[in-house]
């Protein structure tokens, strides 16, 4: 059997993605159109003429060496990761090197470890435990095998110790939905989450699904949240492009949720769906009226809609692995653990240098840029 890799159309890529239950929205053709500062292409894997895999590649040029690119496959590609991965990645490397890539960066959508909500709570309460990785975990043998194969093949791990790097987070919080009812999910939440959901209803918070024209209101609240929580917000145009591109590909791909209390917008969130996965992507909340629990109301609306759509996982996206009660980042996992579910570690992102000298120059450039930001 001779496996090959080559370019495919967006329609061919989307058709393949729609056959996959576990597939990331970052591996759909529309995401390439969202990331306007990158050049994107869709690639397909073939065995004897039969398509068996697909991937979205985002190309980032090297400053002053624009003919070379970093070829990035976020949370992908969509291939069979359970066997020998050289048969999949070797033809990918050959194709991309021949077309000007100096390195490949990818993030296999494969778990390595998982911790229950109960374990996470116990870890936060235990002063002797500082990180998720200090506790026993459920180990995924596929993830362990993929990690070893990547390392043996010369790939370089890129995920930092805190789980957050320039790309996608290695640690995430996920809520399994398969086989569950709404009552099951509520019972799995902690008492505070259940109380906050009830309080939002009692206080008269109304959650609706917004349209593209509501993005300005969302963005105003998002900028307010960024100022309060001290992070750099994305511009309104980015969200407008995201909605336009993703909705054009699939009208159910992306939704905006708005929580109002007596006419005031108190919270807003964005959810995306691909395959059997729904993901919480962005959130915003007002400093005023926090007691009416609009954020909890939005989350519950998204979880219910994901369940009704037949999704198997609701992904609350990135967390840091810290369980240190004195670490300011611990609040993130404390909020998400209230939903029940589990903390999950993925294989993380890995680089394969194809042109080592150019790769080192790019690495130096990125290091210097990061130092300037500090």
Automatic annotation (TrEMBL):
Gene3D superfamilies: 3.40.630.30. PROSITE patterns: FEMABX (PS51191). The keyword Acyltransferase applies. GO terms for molecular function: aminoacyltransferase activity. GO terms for biological process: cell wall organization; peptidoglycan biosynthetic process; regulation of cell shape. Keywords: Acyltransferase, Cell shape, Cell wall biogenesis/degradation, Peptidoglycan synthesis, Transferase. It comes from the Bacteria. Transmembrane segments: none annotated. Belongs to the FemABX family. PANTHER family: LIPID II:GLYCINE GLYCYLTRANSFERASE (PTHR36174). This is Vancomycin resistance protein VanK. The lineage of its organism: Bacteria, Bacillati, Actinomycetota, Actinomycetes, Propionibacteriales.
């Amino acid at each position: 059997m001779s496996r090959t890799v080559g370019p495919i159309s967006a329609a061919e890529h989307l058709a393949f993605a729609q056959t996959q239950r576990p597939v990331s929205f970052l591996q759909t053709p529309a995401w390439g159109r969202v990331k306007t500062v990158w050049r994107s292409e869709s690639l397909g894997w073939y065995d004897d003429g039969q398509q068996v895999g697909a991937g979205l590649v985002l190309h980032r040029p090297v400053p002053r060496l624009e003919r070379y690119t970093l070829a990035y496959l976020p949370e992908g590609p969509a291939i069979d990761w359970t066997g020998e991965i050289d048969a999949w990645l070797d033809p990918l490397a050959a194709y991309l090197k021949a077309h000007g890539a100096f390195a490949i960066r990818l993030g296999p959508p494969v778990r390595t470890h998982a911790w229950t909500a109960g374990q996470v709570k116990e870890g936060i309460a235990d002063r002797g435990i500082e990180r998720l990785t200090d506790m026993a975990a459920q180990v995924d043998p596929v993830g362990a095998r993929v990690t070893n194969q990547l390392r043996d093949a010369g790939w370089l791990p890129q995920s930092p110790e805190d789980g957050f790097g320039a790309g996608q987070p290695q640690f995430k919080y996920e809520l399994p939905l398969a086989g569950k009812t709404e009552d099951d999910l509520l019972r799995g939440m902690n008492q505070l989450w259940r109380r906050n959901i009830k309080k939002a209803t009692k206080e008269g918070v109304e959650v609706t699904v917004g349209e593209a024209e509501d993005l300005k209101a969302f963005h105003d609240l998002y900028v307010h949240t960024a100022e309060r929580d001290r992070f750099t917000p994305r511009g309104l145009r980015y969200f407008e492009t995201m909605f336009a591109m993703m909705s054009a590909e699939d009208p159910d791909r992306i939704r905006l949720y708005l929580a109002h209390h007596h006419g005031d917008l108190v919270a807003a969130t964005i959810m995306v769906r691909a395959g059997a996965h729904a993901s919480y992507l962005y959130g915003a909340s007002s400093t005023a009226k926090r007691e009416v629990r609009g954020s909890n109301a939005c989350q519950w609306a998204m979880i219910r809609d994901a369940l009704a759509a037949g999704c198997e996982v609701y992904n609350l996206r990135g967390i840091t692995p810290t369980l240190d009660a004195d670490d300011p980042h611990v609040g993130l996992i404390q909020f998400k653990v209230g939903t029940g579910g589990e903390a999950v570690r993925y294989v993380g992102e890995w680089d394969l240098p194809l042109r080592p000298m150019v790769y080192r120059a790019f690495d130096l450039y990125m290091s210097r840029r990061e130092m300037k930001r500090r």
